[in-house]
Amino acid sequence: MRAQFVLSEIGVGLRRNLTMTFAVIVSVALSLALFGGSLLMSDQVSTMKGYWYDKVNVSIFLCNKSDAESDPNCARGAVTTEQKEQIQTDLKKMSVVDTVAHESSDQAYKHYKEQFGDSPLASSLTPDQMQESFRIKLTDPEKYQVIATAFDGRDGVQSVQDQKGILDNLFELLNGMNWAARALMAMMLVVALMLIVNTVRVSAFSRRRETGIMRLVGASGFYIQAPFIMEAAVAGLIGGTVACGFLVVARYFIIDHGLALSEKLTLINFIGWDAVLKYLPLILATSLLMPALAAFFALRKYLKV
Length: 305
What we know:
This protein is an alpha+beta fold. The protein is 68% helix and 8% strand. It is built from eleven helices and four strands. The protein has helices spanning 2-16, 18-53, 65-70, 81-93, 105-116, 144-151, 164-206, 208-216, 221-256, 261-264, 273-298; strands spanning 58-62, 97-103, 133-138, 157-162. A four-stranded antiparallel β-sheet has the order 2-3-1-4. The protein is elongated.
């Protein structure tokens, strides 16, 4: 009987404040969709970092005859065979170095022609103008500075370049977008909480006569609160379910179908369905507990006799 009464009161409360209940559902759905989206964005950035940082190289470019005439770093002349052998030997001794590959000027010229053969500059270049280099794969991509400190400014070395620096700019942009989404999520969450509190208070005020009678006949505080708390929880749970639907639909249409980014951007290792499904229970739990707790604290003063 008590359970039936509580459930009937939930239905009455939701119908009486239908407009505000709808606003609560929408705000909870949007805020939790942004919350889930920010979590997935963090996972995506981490996945991309792991994928690309594992592939980036540190390049040590060696001086050639052209550099000796124009580049101050090569003022002592083009790199010698002894210098190349010493650089390679020193690299192999370093614990941060995983593999070392030498690229000759002829190989560099061939690779350039393959990539930029249609460029007007390609027809005017000759193999001797291309720089020899060592391509180094590190055991830890964050340890680039160790290589730079050891070889930058060394005889025969024109420059030390880290491909990771190029990727860092991209990841900083993605992280900035992620923090912007989190800020918007926080704002929407505050709006949702304010709507929940206001909806509960309006509902409690509209039923103050019934709650007053319940106090007089000795009903417990929890028994009086339960319908209001469950109204907020039900509205929040509906919003959380909608948020989960947003994330699933977004993953399906943006990455797999529709825009099909997984087919168009094959160089990006996108997160899988396991990452999406991992966060759905968290979103549902948040959508249930957050409104219930907000309603509980909002109703405390209404229980004072």
